[in-house]
Amino acid sequence: MSILPYSVREGLLGFRRAKFAVFTATSAMAVALVLIGLFGMLSYQAQLVTDWLRETVGELEIWLNEDVDAPMARALHDRASATLGVEDAVYVSPEEAIQIFQEEFGEGAEVFLEEMFLPASIRVRVQSRYANSDSMYALVDEFKSWNRVDDVEFNQPLLVRVQENLALINTTALSLGIIVILASIFLVANTIRLTIYARRLLIRTMKLVGATDPFIQRPFIVEGVLQGLLAGLIASGIVWGLFSMLSSFLPQIASSTFTMVMLSVGITLAGGALGWIGSALAVRRFIRNVQLH
What are the CB-based long-range contacts (under 8 Å, 24+) for 200-208? Predict the structure, then answer.
């Protein structure tokens, strides 16, 4: 009889031999995985907000010369749209600029328009990964080098402030993520250690008859992986339900079905990995401390 079928069979039998211990370990892993899943979903939503903020501050205004005609303006617009790092570009004619000015300043705006010339422009929105000071200055230099371009502007102070805040948020999120994962491993390892302690006599007996440490460990590791996968499925359902409930109250929080499916798969696989790590650490340490006399 090969070792693998024996390990799998003994791992499955462990669910019946210590039902309460298995329930405790699976519940502990499910709680840990729910925390990890919620953190992952919050991180995903935070990344969406981050991309939106970067796109919002990552806007350039290309002011064109007065003598630019419509065909030349369209050519410049097409060239700007095809530039590396540009998400989209919108041409604003002088007439549209006047209309925008009136909408923003309201009544009395026509007083300024009598003496004020509003040139045509191209509003450029850069891709989120290019919404940083270095890339924005590079794009500004690129656009300024074009013929028929009078000036290029962007809100540099706002961009710097957003970058600093996003860096702080990312550092905080990474630190919290590491803490959650380490706490989960510690919780699971200690819970599985209790289930192994409940079978200390069986382990001692196997060592007395000459069983090697890897032979003793394998069934417990298989059992831990199975418990982790089960806990992952339970946690996936809880996270999915919590997110559906939250999105019904906050419609602006949205996520595709594909994203939720991938998150569920990730939680389930993380459960298997968590069960493997926790059981391996717990059983290895316990076996070393078993007294044979």
Answer: 200/286, 200/290, 203/286, 203/287, 203/290, 204/290, 204/291, 204/292, 207/287, 207/290, 207/292, 208/292
CB 62 within 8 A of CB 152: yes
User: What are the sequence ranges of the domains in the chain?
Assistant: 3-52+163-288, 59-153
Q: How high does pLDDT run on average in the chain? A: 78
pLDDT for 209-219, tens place per residue?
877 778 878 88
pTM of the model: 0.64
Predicted confidence (pLDDT) per residue in 4-38, tens digit? 577 777 777 767 776 777 787 788 888 888 888 88
| φ/ψ (deg, to 5) at 82 | -90, 0
Can you state the angle between helices 200-208 and 156-197, rounded to 10 degrees?
70
Compute the chain's Rg from CA coordinates.
Answer: 31
Residue pair 153/63 in contact by the 8 Å Cβ criterion: yes
Q: What is the pLDDT of residue 182?
A: 78
Q: Which residues contact 101 (CB under 8 A, 6 or more apart)?
A: 109, 112, 113, 118
Q: Which two tokens stand for residue 84?
A: 């590396």
Measured at the CA of 255, the angle between CA 250 and CA 259, to 5 degrees, comes to 150
CATH T-level topology, domain 59-153: Alpha-Beta Plaits (3.30.70)
Among the ranges given (15-24, 145-154, 169-178, 262-271), the one the predictor scored with the smallest mean pLDDT: 15-24
